[in-house]
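Minutes, project check-in
Item: structure for the 256-residue chain
Input as provided by the requester:
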Amino acid sequence: MTTETDAELATRLAVETGRQLVELRDELFSMGAAYWEVMDSGDALGHRFIADELSRLRPDDPVLDEEGREDPRRFGADRVWIIDPLDGTREYGEPGRHDWAVHVALWEHGRFGAGAVSLPAAGLVFATDPAPPMPDTGRDKPRIITSRYRAPYAAVLVANALEADAVRLGSAGAKAMAVVLGEADLYVHDGGMYQWDSAAPVAVARAAGFFTSRIDGSPLVYNERDPWLPDLLICRPELAEPALRALWGDDFRLPA
């Protein structure tokens, strides 16, 4: 019988999945595999390992997994694991890129019970317990993190209003952890995503003391029937209201 707590399990799954993904990628690249084969193999490996471990260790808990089938048990469950076994599949398929991640989160009784994000190619893991400390960046000018390929409209509005410098990265997990690390101050996204894209990053960011919400300031709620959760804001607490005013006007106020 396992003695792992949920937080320990989430962290181990994120780390071990990441280790296996790094080994697989190195092996496939050394064999001259095509990028699409690397991507597909990584998705399959991550899903299989986490699904098998949760089935073995938490058999009564339903799972919402990007790569898995819908588990209808989750609709009435108090505990649901929300998993992205390989966030940033495109970056995983490019040799030398580090901006991909593994997400493992537990949504329990309407809040996060545990969460972990690993950045395997960088050898880093971030968890809700123990939570990472919020760094003191000491910057005069904020940095906003955005996509490699395009800047979502909401991010452009916030960047212009706050006169922020832009930093570009791949996966949602890598972007969110750049804020947690202090490499950036805000992550604003409105281009569409799913619950598994943001659950573990939001869990870790909240545990570290960062502000998280939808881009209208409303709470991010998970295990909704529709997995679509298209937007989010993760930022240092002092930047939350200025960022939301940039989107909704100077009269916007966060609820007390």
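Outcome recorded: Residues 39 and 93 are 5 Å apart (CA to CA).
No further action items on this chain.
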